[in-house]
Amino acid sequence: MTYLTDPLLASYSAADALTTSWQFLLKGGIFMIPLGLTSIVGMMAILYKFLSLSRRRVIPDELARKVANFQELAAADRIVPVLKEFEKGESTLARLAAVAVRHRGKPQRDIILSVEAAAREESSRLHAGIGVLDIVITVAPLLGLLGTASGLVTIFQGLNDAADHLAIARGIAMALNTTIFGLAIAVPCVVAHGYFTRRIEVLTARLESLLADLAHVCQRSVKKS
Asked: Most buried residue, 69, 76, 175, 216, by most Cβ within 10 Å?
């Protein structure tokens, strides 16, 4: 009978966990509403950054190999497909490489300056969403503390000589729910913020290396077939 009861136990456990979580949110009071919205915004920002910083959107492996071997492809007169891929602009590397190729034949310094100007716009794209995480990291704990302070004020205003100290202790514990929830929102956002910041640094360094080599190749006129 174990194989029959295990799914039932699992469903009961899930239902109990859901009920407990819902009661926890209700006990936090009105400040749980902005905290809930903040948690949704944080999760959406994290998901967006995971998608926008994927290697396919920034530095596709296949395109990176083509850029690294651009001089050999040009010598073999096989760069037309690569140039078309640049012009499609489906990744950060493709868009910046297209800028370098459009300025081919110019001095390397001019090509690098053009790429750097375009790279500033691409950098803002790479950092899009990081500011949202910054706000969530700051606001969530503050909302939690505000909810706790509001709950404590309500509790202490109702004190009198015949106050039930056990009830007061329970009220204080309930008031702390918002602080716990606020910190629970902020902690994963802090971790995600550090991860995304480091990933942007790594991707940027890789872009700089690839584009510096491409600019060196493009300072001479590239022959199209």
From this structure: 175
Alpha helices in the chain (DSSP H): 2-27, 32-52, 55-58, 61-68, 70-75, 80-88, 92-102, 108-127, 130-157, 165-175, 177-218
* Tokens describing residue 20: 């407990």
Token pair for residue 172?
A: 């204080």
Closest residue by Cα to residue 196 from 20, 71, 42:
42
Answer for the pair 218, 111: CB distance below 8 angstroms, yes or no: yes
pLDDT-wise least confident of 59-63, 68-72, 125-129: 68-72
| Listed ranges 50-54, 171-175, 176-180, 221-225; the one with the highest mean pLDDT | 50-54
Q: Quick one: CA dihedral 100, 101, 102, 107, positive or negative?
A: positive
pLDDT tens string 142-181: 999 888 888 787 777 666 655 566 666 666 777 788 888 8
Instruction: Check: CB of residue 157 under 8 Å from CB of residue 36.
Output: no
CB 153 within 8 A of CB 195: no
